[in-house]
């Protein structure tokens, strides 16, 4: 549960496919708007306060406002890419790209780091050098991306607000300008497709607090979060407060080991290794070799009540030295402690169907279970994986959460 990183999205957008989302959430910070402020020039987006309206207008919405209805039809990635490019002037983009050319042959991590060797979540350099997998993208994918880039470039021209001179008057772009911006769109569209996080909000029913659902709010690109590798049994998870992502440890992370998040289906959601690997290869062009994919662990039970009654004490991490039965880290003591924890935890699982049961009150016991498994049990283990899903649900409710009267 410890916080690893807190990061605001470099670029984000409200879900354009949800009919009411652009008018329910601030287009700048993605917070739910109780008293929304409209855009001064359109009825397509809202802001949660004057500061967000001022910042959103200055950073990107002024340049997207005239063409936002068309952008909305193009879905997540296109709007994020438009906002990344709208955040810098044409001359600024040229200056940055010229400066970055000398760094194209250094390592990917060195490319992302700024001159003081710090990963700056708000640096154009960091987002420019994020992995885009252009070399592993097939011809069909590149053609589709190029078509979207062409459309986005044309919308930017039609807005009459990006290609302007120093007095903000319209300046017709020449062929070189169009090719340059189009190439940037291709780069950032690919970057976003491999690095964007879906931003969610948890919905809790007022009269039945045990019934929760996760609803899409939008998507965002997180620089530091993009540096975490994948695991189907991750050691960290992201939870959202608007477009602010909070990365929390979901397992014990030993010193010197990688922090991993889950890019697609978590092990508990899709236990079939072949399906997980196929989906990951299709989306991210790699074969997953995490501990969950390399282990023989299987999730065979369908509900908590069945799983608790059928669960057997797993393989424990035994100390190399001989221990007595009275040692609180002997096999017998650990098995007894685990059985007691499972007995306590059974109260949570059997209460999940109760309309008045608030799962957030069970955080301490959930963390105690995870800590025990990390210290003494060979993981991944079916029970540990299921406890991790409870952990995830608790912190989702502690993040962006909306109570609905249904």
TrEMBL record:
Domain of life: Eukaryota
Catalyzed reactions: L-lysyl-[protein] + S-adenosyl-L-methionine = N(6)-methyl-L-lysyl-[protein] + S-adenosyl-L-homocysteine + H(+)
GO molecular function terms noted in the UniProt entry: histone deacetylase binding; N-methyltransferase activity; protein methyltransferase activity; S-adenosylmethionine-dependent methyltransferase activity; zinc ion binding
Coiled coil location: none
GO CC annotation: cytoplasm; nucleus
Residues covered by the SET domain: 72-264
Entry-linked Gene3D superfamilies: 1.10.220.160, 6.10.140.2220, SET domain
Record protein name field: Protein-lysine N-methyltransferase SMYD4
């Amino acid at each position: 549960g410890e916080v690893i990183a807190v990061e605001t999205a470099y670029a984000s957008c409200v879900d354009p496919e949800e009919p009411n989302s652009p008018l329910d959430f601030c287009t700048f910070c993605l917070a739910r708007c109780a008293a929304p402020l409209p855009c001064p020039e359109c009825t397509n987006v809202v802001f949660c306060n004057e500061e967000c309206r001022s910042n959103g207008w200055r950073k990107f919405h002024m340049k997207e406002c005239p063409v936002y209805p068309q952008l909305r039809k193009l879905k997540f990635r296109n709007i994020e890419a438009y906002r990344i490019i709208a955040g810098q002037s044409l001359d600024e983009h040229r200056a940055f790209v010229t400066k970055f050319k000398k760094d194209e042959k250094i390592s990917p991590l060195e490319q992302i780091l700024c001159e003081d060797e710090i990963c700056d979540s708000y640096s154009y350099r960091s987002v420019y050098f994020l992995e885009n997998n252009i070399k592993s993208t097939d011809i069909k994918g590149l053609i589709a991306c190029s078509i979207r880039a062409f459309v986005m470039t044309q919308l930017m021209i039609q807005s009459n607000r990006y290609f302007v001179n120093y007095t903000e008057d319209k300046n017709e772009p020449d062929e070189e300008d169009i090719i340059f911006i189009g190439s940037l769109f291709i780069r950032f569209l690919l970057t976003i497709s491999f690095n964007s996080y879906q931003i969610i909000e948890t919905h809790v029913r007022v009269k039945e607090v045990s019934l929760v659902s996760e609803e899409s709010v939008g998507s965002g690109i997180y620089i530091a979060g993009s540096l975490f590798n994948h695991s189907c049994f991750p050691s960290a998870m992201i939870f959202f407060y608007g477009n602010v992502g909070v990365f929390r440890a979901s397992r014990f992370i030993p010193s010197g080991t990688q922090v991993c998040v889950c890019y697609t289906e978590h092990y508990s959601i899709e236990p079939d290794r072949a399906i997980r690997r196929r989906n990951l290869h299709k989306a991210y062009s790699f074969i997953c070799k995490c501990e969950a994919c390399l282990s023989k662990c299987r999730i065979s039970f369908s509900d908590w009540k069945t799983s608790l009654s059928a669960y057997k004490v797993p393989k424990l991490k035994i100390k190399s030295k001989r221990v007595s039965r009275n040692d609180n880290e002997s096999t017998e003591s650990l098995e007894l402690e685990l059985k007691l924890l499972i007995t306590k935890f059974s109260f949570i699982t059997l209460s999940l169907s109760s309309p008045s049961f608030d799962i957030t009150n069970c955080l301490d016991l959930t963390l105690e279970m995870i800590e025990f498994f990390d210290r003494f049990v060979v993981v991944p283990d079916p029970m540990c994986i299921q406890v991790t899903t409870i952990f995830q649900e608790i912190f989702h409710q502690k993040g962006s959460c909306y109570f609905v009267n249904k």
